[in-house]
## 1
Amino acid sequence: MDNVSPAYLMTLPLHAVTEVYGTEGLRRRFLLEAEVLDDQDRVVRALTLAERLHQDDKRVREPYVNHVLRVAIRILRHYGVRDADVVIAGLLHDTVEDHPAELAGGAPADPRQAAFGVLERDFGRRVAEIVGAVTNPVYDPERDSDEQYREHVAASLAAYPWARVVKASDFTDNGVGIIHTSGPKIRRAATKYQPLTPVLHELVQRDDTPLTDAAKRHIVDQLQLADERFSAILSGS
């Protein structure tokens, strides 16, 4: 990485950075993108926390932290967001869902509630609320989990416009990036995500979604691409 210029790294598509330079490249790209933000100390603390909590997590054939780095970079680069709270929420969007006890510390009676308390204490109430809005609840085991997932996303994002920004980037990484998945997981992911595409399409284009028209068009284009890939996978072609 030492011989890669920042200017060159900033021109690369995110999955190209991933494939060629891995986590180190994505981390460096994020820090370059994040230079436009205020409160650099808080941003770096959030990055360090995400790296610690996800350090042993895997995502098909890559470290899971690559996913959260791409989510945060996309919010900065492609959505033009300059709000540190939203970028930090992007970095931490899976922490409560995946590692509540580690985040909370100790052995609290309700690890999730305690974990949200830690996020609020260390990064502010707004970060905790955005992360809360994109965190999947504990599902009823008697009902279909995918159906409950879609119900939660639709209701939660309707209520929290800034959470739509984080979820759009997360969904893009999962949906458009489905081509980097293999094996039985690919059909499972397409089945889970495709019904949510029109829901996100409508939510993103609402007047209260805090993005520019150009950013909204970019997201819609990405949602359409994801939907095409889902359809192709599920049709067996």
## 2
Amino acid sequence: MQLGMVGLGKMGGNIVRRLMRAGHECVVYDVDSAATEKLVAEGAIGAASLAELVERLTGPRAVWMMLPHGEVTESVFHTMLNMLGKDDVLIDGGNSNFQEAIRRGKLAKSHGVSFLDVGTSGGVRGLDRGYCMMIGGPEEAYQRLEPIFITLSPGEGEAAKPSENGYLYCGESGAGHYVKMIHNGIEYGMMQAFAEGFDLMRNAEKTGGDGYSYDFDLPEIAEVWRRGSVVTSWLLDLTAEALQENPSLSDFSSQVSDSGEGRWTVNAAVDQAVPAPVLTAALFARFQSRQQDSFAGRILSAMRYKFGGHSS
């Protein structure tokens, strides 16, 4: 299939590479022309503007935006609506608020364009591992672009059901980003649990009330937990990798940013009157990390860097 990609950063560029590996044709654009030129050298078709990207696509077109949420995505969304037409599909694969996806879905429909909100997880390693995708919007548009989702997913069509491959049509507009929002809220909680646990073990060398004092080898503990433990996970794999490289994690700041989804998850819990104490506490812990230094904060920073390339 043919796909246009707007935004060639850490994830957008690798999504294009994974698609091209499987024989899909990609037309690409980024405000940084060097990013465009790099992918052209690897086999993509470059565009010097959004208008040129649309011109180089064959109808019915499919354009994927992989951009930071907020003003950038909003601006490109409106620009693309004015260039695309009937039967074209516009995808937002970034971490946008699900309520924005609902609004954009309605507006796109009024222009005759199908809008898909695709919550995408996989980080900087998705090129080789594949991406988990949670998809919302018109079902017929999802079905038409399913070959794209199959290629990007970890299973590559080997399983009987889409969910077993690593992608899922979740429902109408906003559903994909809603599920991704909850996914990231849970991620906050899991990361915080690992961070606090390793911080406790690191401080066990301080004599406790009963006179105990342990000098734990944290890299080795992370390794043993990766094998047969009920807490085995990719987040643990990344933690183990970071600790093996630098047990003190001195290269990482203990100040941990939040990219929006955790806040939106807590807001949804309040709106729905659904208790979410763990997810809420994990978000507040990130706020607290900006006020005090801790090993737990460095664990969180290391995990964020390992899966998403986040510098803070």
## 3
Amino acid sequence: MIEVQSLSKKFADQWALRENTWSVKEGRSLGLLGPNGAGKSTTMKIMTGLLCSTEGHVKIDGFDILKEPVEAKKRIGYLPETPPLYEELKVVDYLRFICGLKSVPKNQWEEQIDQAIAKMTLNEVAYRPIRVLSKGFRQRVGISQTLIGEPKILILDEPSVGLDPHQVYELREIIKSLKKNHIIVLSTHILSEVQQICDDVVILDKGVVKAKGSLNELLKARQATHLVEIQVQKSTDELLKNLEKLPAVNQVQLNQSTLQLHLLEEGVNNLDLYLSEIIKHKCGVQSVTQKHQQLEDVFIEVTR
């Protein structure tokens, strides 16, 4: 289990994190999200003991990362945004080096290396120098080193950055397979990845937690407002003002020729009212689409 309690970090006179509290339970995976500069990497560096917090604490499986760093770090595998690779080494030699760093008993080295290579499907490049590998394979090597020492928790900072769509798909499937045996904390800007991989979500903005909870809870809570898109031939300011005055309308937006109506539940069942208003203004209705809430919608809403 990971417990983040009242976590704050200050650089000079600037707070990078402020009073963050959340947790990840056994058997769960968490997406740590936020715009650039929100504090995601800072949080991960504190969780792994690379930075000290100004206030609050992080406990890894009950061990405080600052007070009991050796025991806490035994339980963590960490992939920073730039993987710490020694490019002159072959993949297997690099993993042997990692075994030494993590104090893995020498009689377990080959078994753990074989397992990491198999899980990350690195067999075809295991005896090649890292410098000749593609970006996708380098990312896999970076994740493979997190598996050495058999940690319970994997902390992955932007594992898909710089990969093409095929490589993103392959890496996503690999991370999903790792969920069976590890708690995963994943930071990424690819929100569809989070929806496919993670059980829980924490959204940061300017160092503050703006939303947290299970993915299903966050989506369900914000489906109290439904999005209906109406393609129109034209629009007028008067139409927008009149639509905003109608019952169950939370917000009206115009995106080029598309009216976006954010409606309460009762409004979805009374679309004729809004269509009639558009027709009355002779703006011409071309299509009507009701959109289901996605994580991207929640992200934009809470970090707007």
